[in-house]
């Protein structure tokens, strides 16, 4: 089955890529979850728009990734969350929360899929998360979790 990826699928490809997968995998997993759409000639226009959007967000090369890494590592990111009296959070911090905190702190736009949280953040205080900017470049961001 020939499909066009709408989102990044690990081990398969990036958005806009045309991939050949087994029928069951495409029909039962990729298409229902919105990860891919069926390939047709008319879908070629969608491929182009998806690739343009990806290129606009993508970090251009290793040098640019190093610049973004320096920005992120110098940035002090603070995330306000609801917590109990003991400093324990109601829930945990997600990669989407971290991406929003980086953006609101004046940092560059970072995709939530690029953020890796080692162990779940469930307490207030200082924590570190990793941001994969390029296959060869990863930044470590200091994150201060503050109870509201």
TrEMBL record:
Signal sequence extent: none
SUPFAM superfamilies, A to Z: L9 N-domain-like (SSF55658), Ribosomal protein L9 C-domain (SSF55653)
Keyword RNA-binding tagged: yes
Record-linked Pfam families: Ribosomal_L9_C, Ribosomal_L9_N
Name of the encoding gene: rplI
UniProt keyword terms in alphabetical order: Ribonucleoprotein, Ribosomal protein, RNA-binding, rRNA-binding
Protein's UniProt name: Large ribosomal subunit protein bL9
Family statement: Belongs to the bacterial ribosomal protein bL9 family.
Domain Ribosomal protein L9: 13-40
Cellular component annotations (GO), alphabetically ordered: ribosome
Cited NCBIfam families: L9
PANTHER family named among the record's database cross-references: 50S RIBOSOMAL PROTEIN L9 (PTHR21368)
Function: Binds to the 23S rRNA.
Organism: Kribbella alba
Source species, domain of life: Bacteria
Alphabetical list of HAMAP family matching this protein: Ribosomal_bL9 (MF_00503)
InterPro entries (alphabetical): Ribosomal_bL9 (IPR000244), Ribosomal_bL9/RNase_H1_N (IPR009027), Ribosomal_bL9_bac/chp (IPR020594), Ribosomal_bL9_C (IPR020069), Ribosomal_bL9_C_sf (IPR036791), Ribosomal_bL9_N (IPR020070), Ribosomal_bL9_N_sf (IPR036935)
């Amino acid at each position: 089955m020939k499909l066009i990826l709408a989102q990044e699928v690990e081990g398969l490809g990036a958005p806009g890529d045309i991939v050949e997968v087994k029928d069951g995998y495409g029909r039962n997993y990729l298409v229902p979850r919105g990860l891919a759409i069926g390939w047709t000639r008319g879908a070629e226009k969608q491929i182009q728009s998806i690739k343009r959007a990806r290129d606009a967000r993508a970090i251009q090369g290793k040098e640019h990734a190093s610049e973004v890494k320096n920005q992120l590592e110098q940035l002090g990111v603070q995330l306000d969350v609801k917590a109990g009296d003991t400093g324990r959070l109601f829930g945990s911090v997600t990669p989407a929360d971290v991406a929003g905190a980086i953006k609101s702190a004046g940092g560059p736009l970072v995709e939530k899929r690029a953020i890796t949280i080692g162990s779940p953040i469930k307490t207030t205080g200082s924590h570190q998360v990793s941001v994969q900017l390029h296959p060869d470049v990863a930044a470590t961001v200091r994150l201060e979790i503050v109870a509201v």
